[in-house]
Design a protein that fits this description.
- The chain has 544 residues and is α/β, with parallel strands linked by helices.
- The protein has 3 domains: 181 residues; 147 residues, Histidine kinase-like ATPase, C-terminal domain (Heat Shock Protein 90), CATH 3.30.565.10; 97 residues, Response regulator (Rossmann fold, 3-Layer(aba) Sandwich), CATH 3.40.50.
- It contains 14 helices and 13 strands.
């Protein structure tokens, strides 16, 4: 297929070059012949040669008329001598002169005539009337040139006719060549067009076949992804049951050996559950069941969530894990915090479980619209390489390594978020990986918030949950300025209070804290015990 495509390109290029070459050569030939024809028409040297012969005869006639006493004025003689001089001068310059000299190269009639005219110039100019001796001498001096000029005129006439015949023959041959070249070009173009039409039909047929194959592949891929998703869900259910039974078994009194076996089984089950989660994510990514969130999130909550998520894995691997901020992180960013946390966790888990890591540090920094996660790994020696993170495998590998599933999902997640994963070379033996994802910084402003609580402890709990926010607490006497109202719910006069607050501050959102009697009356409900992350995220969404 590739060879045929190359042949088609060469054929098209060859036909084009041949057509251009034929057209250029035909144009050049035609232009050359046209120039020769123009010279033949505009520079008729036969006429110039004949005129020279006639002017010499007229000059001698004027001399004869004076000798016969028919004219007593020498002006006619001088005038005819000047005209003859100008005709001879034509042969001494320009293109016409050069072409005339070609016919007179052997006899040199013109040269000898010109020399004779220069010798006789003084006699002609100073001649007087009825000086019959001088007139006769001048006439005898120019007499021999009449026959020679006549012979030169004949040579010029015959030569020019031969050249004109050659030009006409060339024009005829050029016209025939142009005709044949045009016919050849048309035949080549038609043949190429026919070939390309046939190739186009064949390519359309192949394209239709490829479309059918693509649809079949798409269908097969969707079936495979649905199968993976279904099997992963089906396997997660019994695996959760296994984990639950293992947790119950670990609570019962056991000796040390049985506890170690139960711990190993628990770790294996959790590992299997993690693999099933990765398979679910991988299937969702391949099946295009993926949508990014673009919501505000707190950077501090992202920092706190990572140790909670990765702590058990680090403990099992007997490795130290450090998560911290490098520099001043903005209070809030806008992006997909869930996918960010997932990609960081997958990469760190991969290092903990495969590299024999002793110490892992994850540092978050923000600069120029990019959230940078720098993962520094101090691992045990043993020839381990992070190439698999970037999709590189040994050429002899014929199966998909299970350990690479997590990094593969993380890499696709980062790509979906328009980020990149890169490895930074270090000199102290550590592996340094950077995950760079573009996110937006949220503009911080003071949130006008009103607390309507029945007890001081609940008010203190709400203020503690909102730590980190830039909050301006509004006095109850001016509720119309509030943007959000946190109201303790579940009281007997709840609906009446909500109605009064709606009337007093119509633009504010009312959040119910506790268990309201009518949840639909509130814009958001946060149950007690209060989950600070849930409340702050909801407020962040409102602010965003």
């Amino acid at each position: 297929m590739r060879i045929k495509r190359q042949f088609s390109k060469f054929l098209f290029g060859g036909v084009l070059l041949v057509a251009i070459g034929v057209a250029a050569f035909g144009f050049s030939t035609f232009q050359h012949n046209l120039e020769a024809m123009r010279q033949a028409s505009q520079e008729n040297i036969s006429w110039s040669a004949a005129q020279l012969e006639r002017e010499l005869a007229r000059f001698r006639d004027s001399l004869g008329a004076s000798s016969a006493g028919q004219s007593s004025s020498t002006a006619e003689i001088n005038q005819r001598f000047d005209v003859l001089w100008s005709r001879v001068a034509i042969f001494q310059r320009g293109t016409v002169g050069a072409r005339l000299r070609e016919y007179d190269r052997e006899q040199n009639v013109i040269g000898r005539l010109f020399e004779e005219m220069k010798r006789q110039e003084v006699e002609v100019v100073s001649i007087s009337s009825f000086d019959f001796t001088t007139l006769a001498n001048i006439s005898r001096a120019f007499s021999p040139f009449e026959q020679e000029l006549y012979a030169l005129s004949r040579r010029v006439t015959v030569g020019e006719e031969e050249k004109a015949a050659i030009v006409r023959e060339r024009l005829r041959e050029g016209a025939l060549f142009a005709l044949y070249a045009s016919i050849l070009t048309v035949v080549l173009v038609l043949a190429a067009m026919g070939y390309f039409v046939l190739e186009g039909r064949r390519y359309r047929k192949l394209a239709d076949e490829n479309m059918v194959l693509a649809e079949q592949f798409k269908t097969a891929s969707a079936v495979k992804s649905r199968f993976l998703t279904m099997m992963s869900h089906e396997l997660r259910t019994p695996m959760n049951g296994v984990l639950g039974l293992l947790a119950v078994a670990r609570e019962a009194p056991r000796d040390q050996e049985q506890k170690e076996l139960l711990d190993q089984a628990d770790r294996a089950a959790n590992r299997m559950l993690g693999m099933l989660t990765d398979i679910l994510d991988f299937a969702a990514l391949e099946n295009a069941q993926f949508a990014l969130d673009d919501k505000p999130f707190f950077t501090r909550e992202l920092l706190l969530a990572l140790p909670e998520l990765l702590g058990p894995v680090a403990m099992q691997a007997e490795a130290r894990l450090h998560v911290d901020a490098a520099g001043n992180l903005p209070l809030m960013l806008c992006g997909d915090a869930t996918r960010l946390r997932r990609s960081y966790a997958l990469m760190v888990t991969y290092f903990l479980e495969t590299a024999g890591a002793r110490d892992i540090a994850l540092k978050l920094s923000y600069e120029n619209g990019h959230l940078l996660a720098r993962i520094e790994v101090d691992y045990l020696d043993g020839g381990w390489s992070p190439d698999l993170i970037f999709g590189k495998r040994d050429s002899s590998a014929d199966s998909f390594a299970a350990d690479v599933l997590g990094p593969t999902v993380a890499r696709v997640l980062v790509d979906k978020m328009a980020g990149e994963i890169r490895q930074v070379e270090t000199v102290d033996g550590k592996i340094v990986l950077e995950i760079d994802v573009p996110v937006r910084e949220m503009e911080t402003r003071r949130l006008k918030l009103l607390l309507d609580m029945q007890s001081a402890p609940m008010e203190m709990i709400c203020k503690s949950a909102l730590s980190g926010f830039s909050v301006a607490y509004i006095d109850r006497d001016t509720p119309q300025e509030a943007e959000i109202v946190l109201m303790e719910s579940g009281t007997a006069n709840e609906q009446e209070k909500v109605a009064q607050m709606r009337k007093a501050s119509p633009g504010a959102l009312i959040f119910g804290i506790g268990r309201p009697r009518a949840p639909k009356d509130f814009d958001f409900v946060a149950e007690v015990p209060l989950e600070a992350a849930q409340l702050k995220n909801r407020i962040a969404e409102v602010m965003g």
